[in-house]
Amino acid sequence: MKNWKENVRRVVPYVPGEQPKDTNIIKLNTNENPYPPSPFVLKAINSLGNESNRRYPDPTSDKLVKALADFHGVGSDRVFVGVGSDDVLGMIFMTFFNSEKDVLFADVTYSFYPVWCEMLRINYREIPLDDDFKIRKEDYMVENGGIVIANPNAPTGIIMNKNDLIDIIEANSDSIVVVDEAYIDFAREGQSCLDLLDKYDNLIVVRTFSKSRSLAGLRIGYAISSAEIIKLINDVKYSYNSYTMNSLQIEGGSASVSDNDYFRSMIKKVVETRERTTKELEALGFEVLPSSTNFIFAKHNKISGTEIFEYLKDNKIYVRHFNQERIMDYLRITIGTDEEMDSLIRSIKVLLDKKADI
Ligand code: PMP
After folding, report:
1. What pLDDT digit, counting tens, does each position of 100-117 carry?
2. How far is the CA of 191 from the CAs of 152, 186, 216, 247, 268, in angstroms?
3. What's the pTM value of the predicted model, to 2 decimals?
4. Residue whose CB lies within 8 A of the most ligand 1 atoms, among 210, 291, 320, for a mutation test
C-alpha cells in the first residue's frame, strides 16, 4: 500500500436523497417545498449586477443577519448564518463538541449527526427512541459532551413535548444543547425553543430556509443563541472559510425574510395538504405518525416499505425509504401540491388493488 493511503481520513459519507435528472417525476423524497419561493427572492437576485460577481461577498453577511435578527427580535450579534443548516450544524459540532464524553442524539433522527461525529472524531451515543418513536427525557439526564435534538424530529415528524425539552435543557446546564428546528414552521405555534434563549445560555436553535421558505437550492441556514456562543461559532468559521455565504444567498435570503405574508400562506397550504393526505393514507391502511413537519412518516399494515417504495418509483413517484432497522417498513413522504398527493394516493390504490387480486 502507498504510504499516503495510511493517512487518509476515511469517512462514510451522508447520502442525500436522490435528485433525478428526469423532470417528469413527482418528487416527494427530499422534503423540498412544492411551491416557489417568494417572488421577492428572484427580483432581489436579478437586481444584482456583475459587480457582485467580481467582488468578494460581505464576509459577515450583514444584511441577511440583520434581516433575521429583526425578524426574530434579537440582536445581530446573536445570529450566525451558513450554507444551509448542514453547514451551520457542522460548524457547531466543530466548535462545541470537543469533549471525551459522548454527544447524545436519538437512534432514529437526522442521519447526518453521526456522520459529522465520525468525520470530526467526536465521541457520540445514539439513544433509542421509545416504542412510539418519542424521546424519553430521562435518557438525556446523564453525563454527556453535548446534546442534539431535531425538533420536530426527522424522519419521524414527531414534535417533543416542550416541557420535556425544557427539562432536558435545564438538566444539562453544563452542556451545549442544540435544537435543530429545520421543520418547526410546520408545527403548531408556540412549539419553538426560540423563546427559551434568554433563559438558557447553553441552548442553540438552528433553522433553515430549505423547507418553509422553499429555498433548498439557495442553501441558507442559521443559528440563534447568545452573543457569546455566536462569536465562538464565527471564530471557527473564519478559521475555516471566511466567505461561506455568497451575494445571491445574502440578497435572496433577506428578500425572503421580508415577505412574511407569502411565507405564512405557503406554510398554511402545506399543512392543509398534510392533514388531508394523512387521513387518506390512514383510510388505505397506513399507520401515519403524527407529523409537525412538511412530510409524513407512514407504514402500511400489510405491504412492506420496500415494495411500496419500489412500486412508486417505477411509477415515477419518488419517496424516501431508509434501509435501517426499526424504520424499514416506513416511507417518508414529502408533502407536495394537492395534485401530486392525489397522484400518490391513486398510485397506492392501484398497488393495493393489485395485491388484493393475488
Ligand atoms: N436538519 C434536519 C433535521 C434535516 O432534515 C435537514 C434536511 N436534510 C437539515 C437539517 C439540513 O437542511 P439544509 O442544509 O438544507 O438547511
Report:
1. 999 999 999 999 999 999
2. 9, 10, 23, 32, 16
3. 0.97
4. 210
